[in-house]
Every structure is written in C-alpha cells, then in structure tokens.
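[audit] Reproducing an earlier prediction to check determinism. Same input, same settings, fresh worker. If the tokens differ from the archived copy the diff job will pick it up downstream; this log only records the rerun itself.
[audit] input (66 residues):
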Amino acid sequence: MDTGELQLINLTEISRMVGMKVDAVSKRVRKPDFPSPVFKIGYMPVYHWPDVRAYFQAHPPRRSNR
C-alpha cells in the first residue's frame, strides 16, 4: 500500500536490505543502470527504496559458494 511517504535509504541500509557488503553495493551504484540518488546529504547519496528494490529484483546479488 502506498502511503505517499518517501522511502529513502542510504548505502548502509541498501547493504542490509539486500544482504550484500557495503563495498559490493558501492560498486553497484556506480553502474549506469543503477537508480540515481534522490539527493545527497553532504557526500552521502540517498536513494528511493522502491527504485533500488526494483533494480535488485532485475539484477539479483550473486550468491557465493564459500
């Protein structure tokens, strides 16, 4: 249900939500097809979670066999 609230998330929160290390998420956000940040707080990009979630549904994290 859409409550009309912005669902904002930073790299650390993305990492936790998708189960990847922050370094791996940092590499993903540099890809041209990753959603653009909504804005920055200082040097920290802030993303719209539904856009990021859709990206990871289309490009799931690889699972390591280690």
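[audit] rerun output stored. Observation attached for the diff report: The chain has one domain: 8-58.
[audit] end
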